Amino acid sequence: MLVLFETAAGHALFKVQDESKLAKVETITKHFETTDQANQLIKLKGFHAFKDTTQAVAAVADVVDGKIGKGLRKFLKKNISDGMKEKLAVSDKALGSIIKEKLGIPCVYDACVFELMRGIRTHMNSLIAGLEDEDLKSMTLGLSHSLSRYKLKFSADKVDTMIIQAIGLLDELDKEINTYSMRVREWFGWHFPEMGKIITDNLQYAKTVLKMGIRSEIKNLDFSDILSESVEAALRDVCEISMGTDISEEDVVNIRALCDQVISLTEYRSQLFDYLKNRMNAIAPNLTVMVGELVGARLISHAGSLMNLAKHPASTVQILGAEKALFRALKTKHDTPKYGLIYHASLIGQTAPKFKGKISRVLAAKTSLAIRVDALGEGVEACIGFDNRAKVEARIRQLDNGISNTLSGKGKTKSEQKKYQKPEHVAQYNAEADMQLDSKKRKVDELTQVDGVLDGDKGAKSDKKAKKKKEATVMETSQSEATDEKDKKKKKKKKKSA
What is the C-alpha to C-alpha distance for residues 10 and 130, in angstroms, rounded to an integer? Predict the structure, then answer.
């Protein structure tokens, strides 16, 4: 029996000297206790070494996928002749079935083969001549890294850790720049308070203070490289009537040092933003097209990684960043928030306030698809991002125009409206087919007769009612008279008895 053994250095083919020792699985390990016993049981018949790491990765990837590569095919054909009836022991069942199908070599894969492979792996250095232990370890480590990178399609440009660190540093820089700028304004405002209302930009303010120093030097300096002509003229006019106090040279030195910090931090901030923009376009181009660089980077940072963000559903992407408001609403049984970090996207900003909730839901659904393409797709282009953004913009236009039907566009399931075509032959109305029906209205004479009859009936009924009323009044008067007579008789009887 022959044994096919794969290593990081190449493919090895061993010949089993005594197959009777492999009858029982329990006794196989005893024959590999020492190196001499292993050499007595099996001998190396052939070895196919890999030329470089690329060939090794390709060969191992074929074995993992259950395929037979060109190098392995040639190696087996060279060392195993067609007339040989020996079986080939393999470590993979799928590989054995392919070898049997393609090359016609019967293969074996069972518990005995598994123990045999374990013994060969234990004494590999002695069984394969010229293969050192340290070299084999380095080859195995390099091959494992290369194979993992090949299977995961790893790229250094796809490391989203850089984005997480960059967006965190960018937020901290914004806070520092704002704090330092406000400190410069308050500090220099004692000397030139009117300047703060004229120059609103913090960077221009810091550069102007750094160049000017003392208020009185503004007349001798040119600020055309920093300020516009109108702002510079207004600054010169206000300088003459300023209400600020005088400051010493030491104060000017410290204020200028703080201005240097503001300028350097602002320049580094712009450089960091360019770096973040390039990273986002490389790692998540579709996400960048949908929500922008800053919002996309904050979503990735909040989720922990691009892969974690891709695992979130659209509803989670929609409210990502508003967890406190969400749990507070669930606890108090109020309305849940409609958006989180996605609220700062440009598409949400250009939407009317009453439609922001709808558009945030649509944008989150399309953005989640774009994120999954960026995380799991192989392409680098942002085609899906541009298509989804166009659909969201079309939805915004529909809501602004008061239309709430389906999205416009050429979808696969959308039925296209056919253009109306005027028919060539139009049927004309046939006047001869008309017929006149008898009128169903009553004539005037009949109506008058009916009215007369009704009036007569009404008169007879009214006479009967009058007679009944008279009879009723007569009966009442007779009854009242009878009761009066009875009362008189009772009174007379009482008087007699008395």
Answer: 12
